[in-house]
Design goal:
Blueprint: H1 3-10, E1 29-30, E2 36-40, H2 45-50, H3 57-68, E3 76-80, H4 94-111, E4 115-119, H5 121-128, H6 133-136, E5 140-143, E6 146-151, H7 154-159, H8 164-171
Parallel strand pairs: 2-3, 2-4, 4-6
Antiparallel strand pairs: 1-3, 5-6
Helix pairs in contact: 1-4
The structure holds iron/sulfur cluster (SF4).
């Protein structure tokens, strides 16, 4: 399967109950051979409405942090652990993550990025099996031949502006993989 085929299959997914209430599946977007992949938690309301990842307030903050790091969104592939919007932005249920994770794994296998930026604890827990963004942010971890950079989720900076300087420092580490 190539990336377009994965995205097209994803758009028809009914593996968990979120398909019943979504407006749009949000598979992700970006370069099919991106060297940097960013993974968040789940689409929010605006992402659900548009079918595009990170277009709301958190997305705008992400854009400005990337811009400061001299990285263009068009150079990346951006997606989330879940591809459908959980109601009221609640945390994804473990059953939903279990059903949806194979899609993310397929995207990673297809794109083969040099670095995977895991934004927030849901992405870290889903792919690495632990929580630890507060102590571990900015660290790089290798697992199964893949390299991961632990990053705060952009929404964390929206709710707590004091985190933004730390976020800028951590996201700037992505530039060496461009
Ligand atoms: S969240 Fe994932 S598993 Fe659930 S319906 Fe959407 S694409 Fe399928």
């Amino acid at each position: 399967m190539d990336l377009i085929q994965v995205e097209n299959a994803l758009k028809k997914c009914k593996r968990c109950n979120l398909w019943k209430i979504r407006k749009n599946v949000v598979p992700g977007e970006g370069r099919k051979n991106a060297k940097i992949m960013l993974v968040g938690e789940a689409p929010g309301k605006e992402e659900d409405a548009t079918g595009r990842p990170f277009v709301g307030r958190a997305g705008k903050l992400l854009n400005s942090i990337l811009e400061e790091a001299k990285i263009k969104r068009s150079q990346l592939y951006i997606t989330s652990v879940l591809k459908c919007h959980p109601p009221q932005n609640r945390k994804p249920f473990s059953g939903e993550i279990k059903e949806c994770l194979p899609w993310l794994e397929k995207q990673i296998e297809t794109i083969q990025p040099k670095i995977i930026g895991l934004m927030g604890n849901t992405a870290i827990k889903s792919l690495l099996g632990f929580n630890g963004i507060t102590k571990m942010h900015g660290k790089t971890i290798e697992k199964n031949g893949k390299k991961f950079l632990l990053l705060f989720h952009p929404a964390a900076g929206v709710y707590n502006a004091k985190l933004i300087p730390k976020m800028k420092k951590d996201y700037a580490k992505l530039i060496e993989f461009v």
